[in-house]
Amino acid sequence: MPTPFKMTQTGPTTLHVTRGFAAPPALVWRAHTDPRIVLEWFGMPGYPIIEAEIDLKVGGGYRYEWQLPEGDIMGVSGSYLELEEPRKIVHTERFDEDWTDGETTVTIVFHAVEAGTRLEMDIAYRSEKGLKMALETGMDEGMDSTYTQLDAMLDKG
Amino acid sequence: MKDALTPLLAALADPTRRAILVRLARGEATVNELAEAFPISQPAVSRHLRILTDAGLVERSVEAQRRPARLVPAAFDPLDRFTGDLRRNFADRYDRLDKALADMPDTANEKG
């Protein structure tokens, strides 16, 4: 049974993600690096991915775009720092709208395991603020905590 | 490409504007009422309301004398759902990756 999804904060500016897949590293690598396959799975809940361009070489760039409502799009771009097929990818990542206080560096390793592949990813944010911004769990929760704090302030005076 | 998110983020970046939104979440308010609720002047309130209105977060009704401001709740939607829950985004994507991998040729042959 492949390892289930797990995301943990490993330091003030780093997140770690683990997930197992019932496929060998070569296929998981291909799913991450072939734009035709990226288009099949790299959407966000409710926001389909509509564009994937990959120049798969060290120093090469990539760009993905997702469809937002009302004709808007959201994009992300970056470049490859390391490529070791089928084991390791290191790339930078920056969204068109800066959610993360600057560029992040993403390191993905595809470990061969009996069940197939265990993916281990490290995301390094440029700052603690960047990581906090990335983890904001949506405006509902963000605003809820803002409401709570401000209610307390307003009640006082 | 329309940029819906930069004005939204800029509008929310100011703590006074966020406080005004909290107040409006309880019900509409006029410039006078907001200036009384916060330690800021009426012109400052008007300026903040203009920024919030431009960002689509607040609307001003056109009652002749009062023009109260009210929240436009739907305005939060694009920002909310796009930045919403990194965990959920990843988890969801990897579920789809399971399916994409299963659809790729040679999964059964190369496994093990």
Amino-to-carboxy terminus distance of chain B: 46 Å
Strand content of chain B: 5-15%
Largest sheet of chain A: 8 strands, antiparallel
Note the overall shape of chain A.
globular
Total DSSP E strands of chain A: 8
Number of strands of chain B: 2
Return the string of H and E elements of chain B: HHHHEEHHH
Order of helices and strands of chain A: EEHHEEEEEEHH
Q: How much of the polypeptide of chain A forms β-strand, as a percent range?
A: 35-45%
What's this, in brief?
Chain A has 157 residues and is α+β, with helices and mostly antiparallel strands. Chain A has helices at 25-33, 35-41, 128-135, 138-156; strands at residues 6-11, 14-21, 49-54, 61-67, 73-84, 88-95, 104-113, 116-124. Chain A is built from four helices and eight strands, in the order E-E-H-H-E-E-E-E-E-E-H-H.
Notable characteristics:
heterodimer; A: about 160 residues; alpha+beta; 8-stranded antiparallel sheet; 8 strands; about 40% strand; globular; B: about 110 residues; mainly alpha; two-stranded antiparallel sheet; elongated
Describe the SSE topology.
The complex is a heterodimer of chains A (157) and B (112).
Chain A: E1 6-11, E2 14-21, H1 25-33, H2 35-41, E3 49-54, E4 61-67, E5 73-84, E6 88-95, E7 104-113, E8 116-124, H3 128-135, H4 138-156
Antiparallel strand pairs in A: 1-2, 2-8, 3-4, 4-5, 5-6, 6-7, 7-8
Helix pairs in contact in A: 1-2
Chain B: H1 5-12, H2 15-25, H3 31-37, H4 42-54, E1 58-60, E2 69-71, H5 77-83, H6 86-103, H7 107-110
Antiparallel strand pairs in B: 1-2
Helix pairs in contact in B: 1-4, 3-4
Overview of this protein structure:
The complex is a heterodimer of chains A (157) and B (112). With 157 residues, chain A is of the alpha+beta class. Helices cover 27% and strands 42% of the residues of chain A. Chain A contains four helices and eight strands; from the N terminus they run E-E-H-H-E-E-E-E-E-E-H-H. Chain A has helices at 25-33, 35-41, 128-135, 138-156; strands at 6-11, 14-21, 49-54, 61-67, 73-84, 88-95, 104-113, 116-124. In chain A, strands 1-2-8-7-6-5-4-3 form an eight-stranded antiparallel beta sheet. In chain A, a hairpin with an 8-residue loop joins strand 6 and strand 7 (104-113). Chain A is globular and about 45 Å long. Mean pLDDT of chain A is 87; it is low at 137-148. Chain B is mostly helical. Chains A and B meet through strand 2, helix 1, helix 2 and helix 4 of A and helix 1, helix 2, helix 5 and helix 6 of B.
